[in-house]
Structure formats: C-alpha cells, structure tokens
Specification:
With 220 residues, the chain is mainly alpha-helical. It has one domain. 83% of the residues lie in helices and 0% in strands. The protein starts with a helix and ends in a 13-residue tail after the last helix.
Length: 220
Amino acid sequence: MLSGTFSARAYSFFDTLVWIACLNLLWIAFTVLGLGVLGAGPATAAAQILVRKRAAGDAAPLLRGFAAEYFRNFGRANALSLPVMAVVAALVLNWNYFSGGHGIFPQLMAVVLLVAGAFVAGAFCYVFPMYARYELPLPQYLLMSSRFAVRHLAGTVILLFVSAAVLYGSSCLPGLIPLFSMGAWLYLTGWLCDRFFTANDQAVEQVEPVGQVVPQGAST
C-alpha cells in the first residue's frame, strides 16, 4: 500500500513537472507569435485558464486548449495587459532615474516607487487568475485585483514570495528560463489564487451575500 501510494505521488509529481514545462514552452512560443508585447497578455490568460482547469481536475489537451484560449482571448487580454505594462514601464523608468540621483528627495522617491512597484506586482499576480475565474468588465479586473491584494495581505505576501523565489532561481540557474521559470510561476500563482478566491467566495456566502470583494461571476 505504501509503495503504491508513493508510486502514485511520484507519478503525479513528475506528470505535473512535465505539464509545467510544456506550459512554459507554449507561453514562450505564443508570446513570440504575438511579437512579445501583444502576445504576453493572451498567452498569460490562456495559461491561467488552463491552470484553473487542471486544478479542477479537467485534463484538457494542453496544446489545443492553449491555442484555443489564446486566440479567443487575444483582444480582451491585450486590453487588460497593455495598461499594466505601461504602468510597470513607467515605474521602472522613474525608479532608474531617481535611484541614480543624490540627495534626500531622489532617494525618497526611489523608495516610494519601490513600494509602489511591490504593490503593482502583488496586484498583478491576481489579475489573470481572476480573469480566468470571473466574468467582469475589463476595468473591474484591475480594480478588484488591487482591492484583493490589499484586503488579503497574507496571500499577497505569499504570491510575492513565490514570484521572488522563481525570479531568484532563474537568475541563479538561467537554464530554467526556457524550461520551467514562467510555467512554474503561472502554475503556482494560478493554483494559489484559485484557492484564495474559493476561500473568499465561501466566506462571502456565509457572511454577506451582497457586496462581496470579488463578484461571483461565471467561469471564463
């Protein structure tokens, strides 16, 4: 019995690793297909939709499912991701400018921008998992993910820790980038967010049926 249980767990673990590696390659390929900037959003949306399906036990074909979700969500995902990219670019450019300055004001601004960047990163971790789970007007995803990041700080810290760990691991072992890095980040953050949203929905149903933090819409 123990041997059978160990074998099943080992098979599940390595099956998940292979799935993550394939997800990583698909994300890179479809991002390149969209010329980078226009491909990253739809590829991330497709990946998070498939991560949620896998978390629910739906063994959908990965390549066919990824391609279908990528093209189905191409316009909406870009409308969601491009403003976020613009904000991130503005924060990075301004931080680079102020961090190289001398005096109290430039250094203070650099710290403020660093804190703002951490908040944006935390909120962004929720955006596409939320997109994969709920049907909302596009501006609501950005608003609700920001609110969720603030109201569920423990979860946000966990997501930031996972993101930092993946980034650190990729910087130490660059060979992970084409094989696992993005796929691992998408899988871990998507799986965690799905658990956070489920817990939030259950708490809202028990306490306050109306005016919940995250609307309970239909799945994408």
